[in-house]
Each structure stands twice: as structure tokens, then as C-alpha cells.
Amino acid sequence: MSTHDDRPAGPATNGRATVVHLLRHGEVHNPDGVLYGRLPDYHLSELGKVMAERVAETVRDRDITHLVASPLDRAQETARPSGEALGLDIVTDRRVIEAGNYFEGKAFGVGDGALRRPASWWHLRNPWRPSWGEPYRQIVPRMLAAMSDARDAARGHEALVVSHQLPIWIVRSAVEGRAFLHDPRRRQCSLASLTSFTYIADEIVSVAYSEPAADLLPVRGKSFSAGA
User: Fold this and answer.
1) Which residues lie across from 196 on neighbouring strands?
2) How many domains are contained in the chain?
3) Which of 71, 64, 72, 52 is nearest to 88 (CA)?
4) 228 assigned to some structural domain
């Protein structure tokens, strides 16, 4: 299997290849800087809405025949402009939701917030699992199952699935054979990015990565992202 880091996979051709694009949602309005996780009522910021429109412009001429989104507000809002551009309804799939996390609803960063409280440290004891949230090994099968269903629905064409940073990164890591333990600040999965999996029949044969909204990305600070 090959990996490319410069552009989305090409259109599916010959009725053989199918491409499933995993799209991370756009920027979220989060003035309190909490890790919002699966909490409701976290919506796209104004910049996030622009990012979603940018993605729609990028994909409108692609051979996308199936559109899926996580049930969370930010994913649904990111999917909406692409659905309008492509003339597709959004299929909601809970399997591509954000990972569960003990720190949900708490301020979370390096040297501040929840990490300063000793009561939180027990939840950081095992970064391999991880001990603070949904195990990585549970994320992978739910994501792969959702991707397989999207592949089948778009067989010979392309599918767009709006999800979240951690699930996208972990399933990509599994497909590419990387260890799950990682630095969250080094995930190659920016806001409104596309991680594209090309299938031949039912097998993933390549992964590509692109950033349609690269010029809109905010400057990354020293803290971990407050949500994904």
C-alpha cells in the first residue's frame, strides 16, 4: 500500500476503484477552550463555516455519490455545504463520532486546566490504551466498518465521510501499520482536511492526504487542541 501526502486520491475509474474520503470538520466556536468531545451544541465558528464552504468547492466536481457525517453538530454543519454542492442527502452514522474522553467538558492543555489537578493524573496512566478515553482498539473497528459501508454504497465511485481528528488519525495509523501511541500535536489531520482511502474491490491499496483549507488554518498554539 502506498501513501501520498499532497492531494486527494484520483476519481474512481473502471468500476473497480472506490475512494472513501474522511473529512475532519471545520473550526469550532469554543471560547472557553474546553475539550468538547461528544458534547452537544458545539457549532462551527465563522471561520469553520468558511472552511466547510471551501471543502464544498473542492469536492463539487468529484465523483462523490454518498455522503456520511457524525451526528455531532460540527460534523453535520461541515457536511451540509458539500451535500448542497453534490446534490446529496447526509447519512448520519454514529460509528464515525468523536472518541469518548474522560476530560470532556474540561479545560485541557499543557501546564494548565485539568492536567494541573492530581485527581486527573490516574486517567493518564496508560497512553497505549489510552486510559483517559475510548480505547484505540475500539475506535479502529467501528471506523473501518463505517468506511466499508460507505465504500459499498459508493462502489466504483467516491464517498465523503465527515468525522473527527482522533478517529481519522487512528484508523489511518491502523491501515498504515503505525503504533497507536503518538503525540496529538503531530497528527497529520488538520481542520477541514481530507484523508482519502482508495479501495480495489474490498482492499485498501493507498492513502492520500490533502488540506483544501490550508490557507485558512489558525496558527497552532502551544496547547493541545481543545477538541477534534
Assistant:
1) 21, 208
2) 1
3) 64
4) no
Taking each helix axis as running N to C, give the angle between helix 136-153 and helix 165-176, from 0 to 180 degrees, rounded to the nearest 10.
Answer: 90
Torsion, Cα 26 28 29 34, to 10 degrees, reads -160
Q: 73-86 and 46-59 are packed helices; what angle lies between their axes, rounded to 10 degrees?
A: 40
Q: Has this prediction a pTM greater than 0.90?
A: no
Provide the domain limits for residue 168.
2-216
- The 10 Å Cβ neighbour count of residue 115 is 17
In a domain, residue 226? The reply is no
Residue 223 lies in a domain: no
Q: Which residues of 13-39 are buried (b: 16+ CB within 10 A; e: fewer)?
A: eeeebbbbbbbbbbbbebeebbbbbbe
Q: Burial level of 226, CB count in 10 A (0-12/13-18/19+)?
A: buried
For the beta carbon of residue 95, count every other beta carbon within 10 angstroms. Answer: 18
pLDDT of residue 36: 92
Is residue 82 one of the residues assigned to a domain?
A: yes
pLDDT over 80 at 1, yes or no? no
Which of 38, 97, 90 has the alpha carbon at shortest distance from 68?
90
Q: Using the 8-state DSSP alphabet, how is residue 116 labeled?
A: G
What CATH number is given to the structural domain containing 23? 3.40.50.1240
Question: In this predicted model, what pLDDT tens digit does every residue of 152-162 receive, in sequence order?
Answer: 999 999 999 99
